[in-house]
Structure formats: structure tokens, C-alpha cells
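Good morning N.,

You mentioned wanting to compare the apo and holo forms, so I went ahead and generated the holo version with 5-amino-5-deoxy-1-O-phosphono-D-mannitol. This is what I fed in:
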Amino acid sequence: DKGDYRHYMLKEIYEQPQAITDTLAGKLADDHVFTSILGPDAEQQLHQIENIHIVACGTSYHAGLVARYWIEEQAGIACQVEVASEYRYRTVSVPANTLLVTISQSGETADTLAALRYAKKQNYLGTLAICNVAGSSLVREAGWRLLTQAGPEIGVASTKAFTTQLVALLWLTTALAQAKQRAPEIINANIRALRNLPGLVEQVLQLEPGIEQLAQSFASKHHALFLGRGPHYPVAMEGALKLKEISYIHAEAYAAGELKHGPLALVDEDMPVVSVAPSDSLLEKLKSNLEEVRARGGQLINFACERAGLETSEGVTHIDMPWVYDSVSPIVYTLPLQLLSYHVALVKGTDVDKPRNLAKSVTVE
Ligand code: M6R
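and this is what came out, ligand included:
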């Protein structure tokens, strides 16, 4: 039931504060996380992990790409991420003490399931499924399971499933950091950030009117570029996927530092460039990339915190984001991109909840 919402997608976007709260329930104490929810000896097994392979498709793959930044930085564990359709058909080299993590909303995606089955025949320390459907094949077949509590997601475009996957992955990162006895500040900061997250997400949802306005000028475009750096690069990838999926506008994401290596040639006044620009350690680098875009007449749309001090000039639109803790920033900055693609699709009159040619769950290859 859509309730008062025009589309399931919009309803699901607005359900995110609750979905995040539900996903975190019973997982956080004041200064540690409850690793026992994975199993009785989990903390000891987490301690042994030296490598992580993450395998997933589509939006769930993007969640994995964000997590790689967290896992390597905060837990000090080497991590690689791959789309399941590639992973399942190649010979994978598995170093000692590697955990395989699959991520899926449905738990029935054919390639992801095949990847898990393949992995179970390799020399992994264990397998973990992060999934939104408790009784799914993926959850039944994985060694460990970490359930997201997004509730049913009807819209084909994944929204609340993605942000709750990120929440589960940040929880996993914290659990690994704890098992590896990393600095307690890392664990405490993540717990604080996760606890504040639902309120912050509520706040960002209030930006909808400004984003709706922005969507008007966007809808006549044929192409768009999304830029980010660090963990906001996969957030940009997810923003581009969302836009192409429901509005059929061709969108591509680049790590902002790659701009000069090719895509800058595309930039002109007809090319909107969306930048995901939180106030983090990479902001200054990103700013110089954005100047390159402006110098070529590109229309810039910045999602940035006021404190970032990005220059305003003609052709530059800002959406002011609240200040956020670094670790949850990729989650928070996902929201305006969901709202942007939703409103662009509305202006274009496409079928938001059931985009052409796509199925909610891809159970065949
Ligand atoms: O159910 P899964 O998470 O395994 O699905 C994977 C992809 O098919 C899915 O995320 C797809 O990319 C979304 N429709 C994108 O919004």
C-alpha cells in the first residue's frame, strides 16, 4: 500500500529513518557492538580475518564499493569488491583467512547466489550474506547472515535497501575494528554516528522542495555526469544508476580525479555535472576538479555542506547539506541523489516504480 505517497519509491525514500533504526536494533552498546548477533564465536573468528572479498550486483555492488573504503581504513583489512556476474566465471585467488561477503536486497539474484555457491567450494574462512529477506536462498546458504530491516521494497529502484546495506556494512566494519582491537575512538565515533543517523536522514529529507525545483532544468538534458571522491565516488555511481534507471537519462559517474583523463571532453553547457562534495579531507582536491568543469561552461550542481565554502556563481547550484560525521557521510549524501532522480523521472513522466526493461529481482542470468 502506497498510503498517501504517489509512488512506492517516494514512500520507500521516506521510510529510511525507520528502516535504519530497525536495522540497528539490538546491535549497538554504548562503547562496543554486539558481535554475538553473528554467532557465538564471532568475535574470535572476526579477529582471524585478514582479507575480505565482497560480491554483489547493481546497487548492492555499490554498497560494497563504499564499504571497501571503511573496511580498509577503519579495520585495516584488505578488501576487494566485484560484480557477481564476473566473479562467478573466473578463477579467483583466495588468500588465507579471507571472508566472502555477499550483499543482496532480495537474496535471490541469480549471479550473487551462484557466486556464493562458487565461493563455498573455495578456501574461504567463511561466508556472510547481508540481505533484506530472511527466508531467501542467499540467507539459507551463507554461513553467517546479517539482515537489513528495510521491510519490503516494491519500487524497482533500490533506495532504503541500499542505505540499510550501508548501515549493516558500517556495523560490520565496526565489529571488525573491535575484534582487531583498533583504536577505541574508531568504534565510539561509529556508534555515535550510527545513533544520530536516523535524525540526520529526516533532516535531509526536508531538502526535497529545493531538489524538486532543480529537477525541472535537469529533465531536458540527455546526459549527466556524477562526480565524487573517496567513498563518495561509489555514492556518485549509485546516483548515476538511479537517474538512468528511472528517468532514462544517460548518466555516468567518475572519480573526480579522472575527469582530466577523458570525460572533461564531454563537458559543455548541456551537460549537468552533479558533485557529491562533503567537507572531508578530499574537498580541496574536488574543488579544483569542479573549477575545471566551470571553466568549460558545465552546469554544476553541488551537494555540499555550507562549511565547504564552495563558490557560487552563475551556472552553479548548491544544495546545502547538514554537517555529518565522516563515516556516515556516504549514507547521508545518497538521499538527495535518490530525490533528484525521483523528481527528474516525475517531470519526464516515466514509470517510476516499474522502469522499462527491468525486473525487481533478477533471478535469471
Ligand atoms: O536483490 P539484489 O540486491 O541482489 O539486486 C541487485 C540489483 O539487481 C539491484 O540492486 C538493481 O541494481 C537495482 N534495481 C538498482 O536500483
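The two ends are 30 Å apart (CA to CA).

Happy to go through it together on a call whenever suits you.

Best,
F.
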